[in-house]
Design goal:
Radius of gyration: 33 Å
Order of helices and strands: HHEEHHHEEEHHEHEHEEEEHEE
Shape: elongated
CATH class of the largest domain: Alpha Beta
CATH topology of the largest domain: Glutaredoxin
Length: about 375
Amino acid sequence: MRIGEVAGRAGVSAKAVRYYESLGLLAPARSVNGYREYRPRDVRVVREIAAVSRLGLPVQQARVFVECLDAGHDHADDCPSSLAAYRDAIDDLTERIEALRARRAVLQRRLHEAACRPTAEPPAAAGITPVASRRPFDAGHPQGAMTEHERLPRDLPVPVDDDAAAHLPGVAVPQLALSSTGGSEVDLALLPRRSVVYVYPLTGRPAVDLPHGWDTIPGARGCTSEACDFRDHHQQLLAAGAGAVFGLSSQDTDYQRELVQRLRLPFAMLSDVRLRLADTLRLPTFVAGGMPLYKRLTLVISDGAIEHVFYPIFPPDEHAQQVLRWLEKHPAPSAPGRGTRGTTRARPQTNGVEPVRTSTNGRSAPIGGRPA
């Protein structure tokens, strides 16, 4: 056989056959005119050499496998020398894997340190206030310093009001028990007086990439900053009449629990992995990275019904302050039998008054017979 036929039968290139021969792994006969003449056995040898090479072993180490065939064994790895070559290759891979793991651990640690490092506010262009600088610095909070992971880009697209939440004011909240990072289930229909539930798409983690194009989706970026704003104003929200504050997203509870611990949030997160609340109330959603996610909005729930809706929300790192101002401007009306603490059964509103729009990013429904 000529070299081209051997290469074709063995599934390699003619150049590879010549290389194997230059290493002394092949020794074809020569015709009287000097041409190489290969035997059927050479095809088997070339195949074995190529197989060893595909395993990641140096081609030179294929010699022990070829010698095993030359000794008359049926398989190239029937000999002790072949088994020793396997062991040596495994030991080498183990060392390389451990070295790579150590390098990865160092990179992950440095990435986490860099992403979570408190940074000074970069100088802004004349007349321009960066979005990130609007969030107040809470010197008294362990997590008060803003990290690079929480900092919002200056050019985030602003979400537009598509009326996707216009139907919500006055709607009764469904009896829906959701898993909580507090360790129990929370029924939305039995929330304490005037609870604030802010719904968000997805919080990132310092060492994990967000879905591709996340920053270009209006209203997507800023969930961590929003959580920090609710954390920093939590006591003020309660003092202004909020019975409780919850975050709600489609991530599972373990994912949310990491956020609560990392940011030291004083309130619980609710998990709605199957977006059941969206299906029941027709809440706006979108898809990113193949995941269905909630659009950012906030519900003020009173006596089992939606009193007010904030939608769309921008900037997210100021939203808790927007909610706080609304609560202070619209104190909850007193009513006979209404408790100031604890839970109440859900009941739909029957006052017959149409919901009224109160702002460009919020909607209200009358509660207790008076405009909100």
